[in-house]
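# step 3/5: fold
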Amino acid sequence: MSPQPQAAVGAPLSRVDGRLKVTGKAQYAAEFDADGAVHAVIVDASIGRGRITGIDTGAADAQPGVLRVIHHGNAPKLPYRDNAGSNNLPGRRLRVFQDDKVLFHGQPVAVVVATTLEAAQHGASLVKVDYDAEQPSTDLHDAERDKPTNYARGDAEAGLRDAPVRLDVTYELARNHHNPMEPHATIARWDGDKLTVWDKTQWVTGTHDELAAVFDLPTESVRVINPFVGGGFGSGLRCWPHSVVAALAARETKRPVKLVLSRKQMYFGTGFRPSYEYRLRLGSDRRGRLTAAIHDIDAETSSYETFTEAVMGAGQMTYSMPNVSQAYRTVPLDVNTPIWMRGPGFASASFAIESAMDELAHKLGIDPIELRRRNEPNEDESSNLPFSTRRLRECYTVGAREFGWQRRTARPRSRRKGDWLIGLGMAAGVYDPGRYPGQARARLDADGTAVVEAATSDMGPGTYTSQTQVAADALGLTMRTVTFRLGDSLYPQTGPHGGSSTMASVGTAVHDACDQVRRQAIKLAVEDRQSPLYGVEADEVVVRGGRLHVQGNPTRGETYRTLLARNNRTHLEAGGSYTGPPSPARHSYHAYNATFAEVAVDATLGLVRVRRMLGVYDAGRIISPKLADSQAIGGIVGGIGTALLEHTTTDHRDGRIVNANLADYLVPVNADVPEVRAIYLDGEDNDGNALGVKGLGEVVQVGVAAAIGNAVFNATGRRIRELPITAEALL
């Protein structure tokens, strides 16, 4: 078949939902109008571990407007049947209001439902809870480790022992919280035995499946609606307890219930990027060729579930070396369960690996880029598979040229501007983009417009826009004549909206559905004796601007509208699908980057200021350059936060998070964000999806913290191995 003209894909188009957002017409989870809705406020545990010995709700019950106070003493027992939905981490999920156990500070122990938010808030403040408190375990360094997950090739101990050059360093990464602009919220409404939920989620299907499991409902009895998400960064990748609480409260009061977490509650009501202690031992020859690496990785998880992420992947395949050993241990603590956060696993591992590579380069007197070039693998040595694409060498070359790497001096503390020490650093990044089975539905109406649907989400990367671009080109329509709908469990099912998976997974399903509809129309035309296209080979027909015509002869053709009207068709419709990556895998499928940073450090005060940053990406086909730039800037800003600002502080005496607010938990603001630039290598990666994409949203944060830390060392000569890098550490 002739190639379909591409007018939308690759164009720097503005967001199709932009006007809705800037005019306030986009509806988020807490903004839907459920007639007769009442308000719920959760009462949080004030101890870090123990049991509830008594709950006094008398004062709350007596308050005007309070309808009900629900807790473990009066809540119905919920089935919580097993499922493979959003709550499928190993261990026992948190079963709210089902017993008297307190597993972490801030755990929901009661909920107050009232006719107004103010009444619910006041009622919650009046609930008195007595506890038999125990000392919680919340310190990663002092707790017992689980049995490790191991990986090995070669003999790492022998390789390290025989290496002429050795490095033994330990890095520590603070816990980070997502802090999206939109707080997590749920509105729940029961209509008989059917549950409708408006929920902030990055996985409509997962939340749907979880609620069906908790309440033991048939899947057709639950509907989850979520057309807009005001930022997620991974915090919405599972169904959290507050969503269950809202649905339970709605069932018990027989009223729709709205429950919105406060900013403070989001620090223990949803997950976080876990803290890490990462010891890395590297061995190399004197020319910098790596011979061995031993990774010992400890990460926090909760006592009731085991959360893991892909923190081992980068150490297995980023660089070539014959001997690798890894031990990844989770550390059960009395905390709520962590969850994936932008660049999960790879972003954390990259700080240790890329910082160590910089340390090794300095020790050997080799340029950091040259050291990485000398250790570039020819294949993925963890799987022995060829790379689908791997253009890190080109990322280094382009980045060094565009950033002015030649101006870097290898001797630390050698560039100065007044009181400020100037340094340059870089890091490589790799990420394993997700690819999940997904479905989509496309309908072409008789008026020449189209509607495409899939139950995915849009937490900010521009899913509405990018999927509309794919659909428009596949159908041969203009952007304004295509409507893409998402965020409803009634639409065709998709995987989670995270892990850089949406464009490869949902986009491929959308392309398939729209391609089928276009082919239906072409078949109808070439078999219709009244059509100008009658008798033409179907493979010779293309569609552009809603008009079917012969390739190379635009004058011979007709519009969708004319074709459907003449054939008395109200619409054409098709379902599309993506089955997931090839099985068995044919290639090692990863996205790559080289990130460059320039920092200034006040020589007296130790203050760090990022001056400029550049990311160069091997991320396959770029569907929307404008959206890609937004992703890159966001990922780099997030990396700046991880490197210099973000740090969740816990009082280990009682498990309380001390800085559970945006005054004390620091995130980057405009003054922290310098000149940021992104470059995308032109090309496609056609391993496993028809669009040639890899996904961009995660890899853009991988390596950012390391690049900044390496630049700080170049500026000051001080190697900081603990994140965030603070002024105190540099004094």
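# step 4/5: annotate
The chain has a mean pLDDT of 97.
# step 5/5: archive (pending)
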